[in-house]
Fold this protein.
Amino acid sequence: MERFNPDASFNALEPRIIDEDLIRKALDDEGPKGEAGRLMLQDGIILAEVTCIRLEFFKILAIDHLWMMTSLVKLNLSNNIIEKIENLEALVNLKELSLSFNYIKKIENLDKLTKLEILTLFENLISRIENLETLTDLKILSIGNNIISNWDDVVYLRKFKGLYSLNMAGNPCCSENHVGDGKRSKPKDGESIVEIDVKFGDGELIEPKQRKREFEIYIAAMLPQLRYYEYRLVNEEDRAEGHQKYRHKLLSLSNEEEKEEIALQKAKEEEELIHKEKAAWVENLRGSELFQVMFSSDPYGDALVKLDETMQEIYEEFKTEFTKTTRDLYEIGLAKKLERDEEENQFLSCLKAAKEETRKEGEGIMTELFKEKDHTFSEICRLAQRLEDEGGVIQSASKNTEDVNGDAGDALVEVSTLGEEDFTEQELVVRMHSLGEEFKNRCNKVWSQLMALETHLYEQIEDTISTFERNLSELVSSLIEAVQVHFVSCREFATQFHEKITTYAPRYFAATKARIAACQENLYMTDEDDESDQNSTSIQGQETKDDCPSVPKILEQCLDDKEALQNMLISSHDSHIQVIDTKEDAIMSYSKEWLRKKIDKYTREEIEGNRKRLHEIITVTNLLKEELEELQQACITLPMLAEMELMDG
């Protein structure tokens, strides 16, 4: 299959869906050739690490299997037969998407691609610009040669403040020549051009021949952020003309956008406040939310408090006292959250200061060690070069081996006191060996120093975490105490409400029952009147029936059954207490769990950090020793090594 020769092979292809084989073929086609390509195939391609892919001219009908390529930044699906935008949700890092030259009818399913900057939909069947709200980083949009006819689609693009390049050429809204199949082409000889009347901003009709020019002026006015239209710089004279011509529409849009901005800002602030409340464990305590929850879960109580004014007064009194108490707890919770945040910030600051101090001290030690390394290695290399210049063979003319190795400590002292010009080859070897041993000892000493520093740091961190845990525990305990005190008050208010309702409700139902009985008796007596007064009594009876008292169906049994009323009142009270208890338990549970997780998190992080730093210390010192050994092996000949082994023996 010749990928880039659509005239020869594209029509012969069978429609297909994107699968892993197609993805790998496209990557192979785009990858390096020759030896580099062979090595790439040998190592294998990790799809999750691919950042760019072109899937053009494959006669792709549907998008699929791209969820594996989460690192994609650029995706080209142009020149296929795709009918629907779908299955792109996993490509959250995508910045450039090309879907030009397909059969897409609707812009959709792009809401997860929040990093998208370039979107190309040229030559499709799209009739509306829509569903792009989440693409706040959009900079370039090409949607020419589609079937967009409404000029208001341009207004939709005002919300994309970073949009600086737009192409809508070839759409009915701006094209002088339009063929009605959704694809743009010049008419053949003898064919007529389909003319579409398009309404623009102020509802007037524009003749096709004037449409393109007028649309450019409209674009310039409606999109102040736009710098390029149809890849040409926007004419500032067109923008000024458009501002004058469409000033009323622009003013109306500006007012609407200002209102929308205010609404969005309020929604954002509310969302932030809710998030803040959840973090402080005081959600539903700001106003009457918790109070409303009590009655929404208590249909009997909700119906009862609406029976008459006295019931409503008792209810309102309960609501006022209850919501004031929960509001006080809400303020305390937010204040305690600030205190916890401040405590955590101080804790992190202490950790940072301790680590920084240890880091600087460790860097100073390592800097000195590396200076010694450079000096030692250069000395060894210089001595080795001198040995090489003198033949690299051990001579025993000046001293025999037994004299040199009789006592290792004396030999080193003796060699160190000699002038270098007096050194024999044996003495040079001893000197090189001595330098190496000194550096190894220095590495061991540095290892001990760094380990001591790290041990001291870890002990500091342990103490800091213990102090942090103690302080946080006190803050959480103080909040729990406040929660308990305030919810005790809430339960007392609920009990007082229950007592008032329990006292008043029986009297209310007894009086209501008596009124209903009297009303029914009156209706019965009316039915016994003479037939001559039937018309007038019917009217009077109807009026009396309408005036008869009634209760909600859910409470009807309370009229005749005092025990049912008492059970209902007890059930209502229990429901209220359960809501209060549940909220109290939730706050206490959340706070204790938060404390445990917070301390566990920092403890785990510091243990892992300590292990990592210890590993670095061991690795660095071992590497330096290995470098020394490699240098000695490179500089010292076999006879020298034999001599050094005799000395060590």
Observations:
- The radius of gyration is 43 Å.
